[in-house]
């Protein structure tokens, strides 16, 4: 059994799940350039509003995007601190790999 200290939190798992769909990656790429409303995203991606809404919900549930209401429109933008959380999680693996490589090189010398 894996100790709970080593199990990723639900926030981490939800974030990577949200990133596992190519269409959601395309949405994030557009939002990386600018804040957009649903109509702009539908047009840019050439998809229906219902399909986009499903994917935006996954991204919102993972807290990767913010939704800002302005009148009857909802504008979406990236939630950069959530991406930083995922980056920090992955950095632990980079650090671990780097230490293992150094240890191996030291033992071989």
UniProtKB/TrEMBL annotation:
<keyword id="KW-0805">Transcription regulation</keyword>
<dbReference type="InterPro" id="IPR001845">
    <property type="entry name" value="HTH_ArsR_DNA-bd_dom"/>
</dbReference>
<protein>
    <submittedName>
        <fullName>Metalloregulator ArsR/SmtB family transcription factor</fullName>
    </submittedName>
</protein>
<dbReference type="InterPro" id="IPR051011">
    <property type="entry name" value="Metal_resp_trans_reg"/>
</dbReference>
<dbReference type="GO" id="GO:0003677">
    <property type="term" value="F:DNA binding"/>
</dbReference>
<dbReference type="GO" id="GO:0003700">
    <property type="term" value="F:DNA-binding transcription factor activity"/>
</dbReference>
<dbReference type="InterPro" id="IPR036390">
    <property type="entry name" value="WH_DNA-bd_sf"/>
</dbReference>
<keyword id="KW-0238">DNA-binding</keyword>
<feature type="domain" description="HTH arsR-type">
    <location>
        <begin position="4"/>
        <end position="98"/>
    </location>
</feature>
<keyword id="KW-0804">Transcription</keyword>
<dbReference type="InterPro" id="IPR011991">
    <property type="entry name" value="ArsR-like_HTH"/>
</dbReference>
<dbReference type="InterPro" id="IPR036388">
    <property type="entry name" value="WH-like_DNA-bd_sf"/>
</dbReference>
<dbReference type="Pfam" id="PF01022">
    <property type="entry name" value="HTH_5"/>
</dbReference>
